[in-house]
Design a protein that fits this description.
Layout lengths: L1 H12 L13 H22 L5 H25 L1 H8 L6 E5 L2 E5 L4 H8 L8 H23 L5 H19 L11 H19 L5 H16 L8 H23 L38 H11 L63 H10 L8 H9 L2 H11 L6 H14 L6 H6 L8 H10 L27 E2 L37 E2 L21 H9 L2 H4 L18 H12 L15 H7 L8
Length: 620
């Protein structure tokens, strides 16, 4: 394999690229897609008036989707929001603003059609299918018209190809993109065939070894017997990561512009599971150039200091204990008020920075806002920035620490917030046994964990909400926004009488433009990294073990247990997981354990910290 990779790399870098308008398979592919949507529109009309069978409709839709997959990389790159809204977005209700008021919008596009056309009740959706097909043709025509006027940049095209590899693996091969047909393998093969043709056109010389890697990946997809049997882990290691790395080298040779801080995805990464695959500074108001070891150390001191709370007994570490993977092991965290808990369970802070929204109800938009909510909450810190700053200014050791960090003793809210953000940002974890295996740093990974990953990303459909590589609701391939889901989590899963937890979630997060019924009982999709260390689970902490969590998903959430759950986004159908399959999924989750983050004692105010008590011991 090493000889193969070096041969491809050598071929990639000695070239003089032609103008991409002349590269086959891009603009011509978009025209083919438009023509396919025209055919689908006509077939949809024929189906509406019962002139053709559902089989013919399904065949036409599948063909249309294949033509789209060939040019998805370029359309989704140049028109991401338009594609998500009109071409191939998730089949879920969503909100748009109208005069600052939330308006619930119906989804449209290929994913919606895939779900409808391949459903058992397709005969009852004739009118809707015809309308969606007609809209799709209109939107495809708009994209074609605009792209025809665009001069395609070489660097953009290669970057789009790399993002397509991420999209293909995280959204395509998981089944996210094909909710009805499960034609994921065929569509992935079509996408790779197109990328292969474009890559070959960019090369001055046709390097057989480069074509061979693409071709072997395509054959691997075509020879797999079923969606559930596909070995996604081997495919990732053998094809996706090497192709991603090679295209990255090509991109670097073409376009040396620094994109750090302006996008979440780090174009300089070499693997989907690199520690720097995402840029943490994209997600915070703190700039990379502002950060430093001194700032991080100051943030750590503040994180463990209970004197910042109103009664001097609660620190950030009270609910985010490093000994418990920065969670606290409680169903709902204890509060500043004796005998009372906060509203929800405390999630881990490891990798918390990789998010566009914070808290289970997604009410905060960055780490700084998240900290402010805790500071002002009357049952948490119950204080204000002015009071905290007064305490810091009165403390000689803090004045010294701020001077060491910033060059002077001035203590401000902005500096305080940046210091906390710096420490939380540093709590990153992409070095688990699974990560090391995927990156090729070790050849050892338990066979049960390997099987569990394939189930997680395939049959069990976990990867359609817990997206790789964060395994959270941060949506690939751009990783710029978080999803929330309605699962129908039970108030008490052990009770004889089953009831959905009454917490309204995102519907009551205080953000006016999100006050819509589609967010009732909707909660942020948190990471499963280190989940084996952070029991209990879900927003209410009602599920004590991973076994209980997997059983809940296997039964189809609240609806699957016969309860009424408005707009449940989790499928109510059983996953039909066997006992061995459930154990394998849990083994995979355990292989994501990694708490080797910066949890050592802070330096600079040791005496002050001792006076305040050890983190977590003086909790409430």
């Amino acid at each position: 394999m090493l000889l193969l990779l070096s041969g491809i790399a050598g071929g990639i870098f000695s070239f003089t690229p032609p103008a991409l308008d002349a590269v086959p398979g891009i603009k011509g592919g978009v025209r083919e897609f438009y023509q396919a949507t025209n055919s689908l529109k006509n077939i949809g009309q024929a189906f509406k008036f019962k002139r053709i069978t559902a089989d013919s409709l399904q065949a036409t839709l599948s063909s249309t989707r294949l033509t789209y997959k060939k040019i998805e990389f370029i359309l989704a790159y140049y028109y991401p929001e338009y594609v998500e809204s009109h071409i191939n977005g998730a089949p879920l209700l969503h909100l748009e603003s109208e005069n600052s008021r939330p308006v619930v919008m119906e989804p449209e596009g290929l994913q919606v059609l895939d779900e409808l056309v391949f459903a058992a009740e397709v005969e009852h959706e004739r009118v809707k299918i015809a309308e969606l097909a007609q809209k799709l043709e209109t939107h495809a025509g708009i994209l074609l018209a605009d792209l025809d006027k665009k001069s395609l940049d070489r660097g953009d095209v290669v970057e789009a190809m790399r993002l397509q590899l991420v999209r293909l693996f995280t959204l395509g091969l998981t089944g996210f993109d094909t909710p009805g047909s499960q034609n994921a393998l065929q569509e992935a093969a079509a996408s790779l065939e197109s990328l292969k043709e474009v890559a070959s056109s960019i090369h001055a010389d046709k390097i057989a070894s480069g074509d061979r890697l693409f071709q072997e990946a395509i054959i691997s997809l075509q020879q797999t017997l079923s969606f559930n049997s596909f070995d996604r882990l081997s495919f990732l290691k053998t094809y996706i990561n090497p192709l991603y790395q090679q295209l990255g080298q090509l991109q670097k040779a073409i376009d040396t512009a620094d994109a750090s801080g302006i996008q979440a995805w780090n174009r300089g990464s070499n693997s989907l599971f690199d520690e720097d695959f995402l840029d943490p500074y994209y997600f915070t108001a703190l700039g990379r150039e502002e950060d430093s070891p001194a700032l991080r150390n100051l943030g750590k001191v503040l994180f463990y200091d209970p004197s910042l709370s109103q009664n001097g007994k609660m620190s950030c570490a009270s609910c985010h204990n490093p000994q418990k993977a920065f969670a606290d092991g409680e169903a709902k965290s204890l509060s500043l008020v004796e005998g009372k808990t906060v509203e929800r369970n405390a999630p881990t802070l490891i990798n918390a920075v990789y998010a566009s929204r914070y808290f289970y109800d997604m009410r905060a938009f960055n780490l700084e806002q998240q900290a402010a909510h805790v500071i002002f909450n009357e049952i948490e810190f119950n204080t204000a920035h002015a009071e905290i700053l007064a305490k810091l200014k009165a403390n000689k050791q803090y004045r010294k620490l701020f001077k060491k960090t910033f060059g002077n003793k001035v203590i401000t809210r902005d500096r305080f917030s940046k210091a906390l953000a710096s420490y939380v940002l540093s709590l990153r974890s992409f070095n688990s046994p699974f990560d090391q295996y995927v990156r090729g740093e070790t050849s050892m990974l338990d066979e049960q964990a390997k099987r569990g990953f394939n189930l997680f990303m395939g049959k069990a459909a976990c990867g359609t909400c817990h997206f790789a590589p964060t395994f959270s609701g941060l949506v690939p391939p751009l990783y710029m926004k978080n999803e929330s889901e309605i699962l129908g989590v039970l108030q008490n899963p052990k009770a004889a009488a089953k009831n959905v937890d009454p917490d309204e979630g995102r519907l009551r997060n205080g953000i006016f433009r999100e006050e819509a019924w589609i967010y009732e009982k909707s909660f942020k999709t948190t990471t499963v990294r280190n989940a084996a260390l952070t029991a209990p689970y879900f927003h209410n902490g009602a599920y004590e073990t991973l076994e209980e969590v997997v059983d809940f998903y296997d039964t189809g959430g609240g609806q699957g247990q016969g309860l009424e759950v408005v707009n449940q986004t989790l499928s109510a159908d059983s996953l039909h997981l066997t006992k061995d399959e459930k154990e394998a999924i849990i083994a995979f989750i355990r292989s994501l354990n990694d708490v080797a983050v910066d949890a050592a004692p802070a330096t600079g105010v040791a005496d002050h910290a001792k006076q305040q008590g050890a983190p977590g011991h003086n909790r409430r």
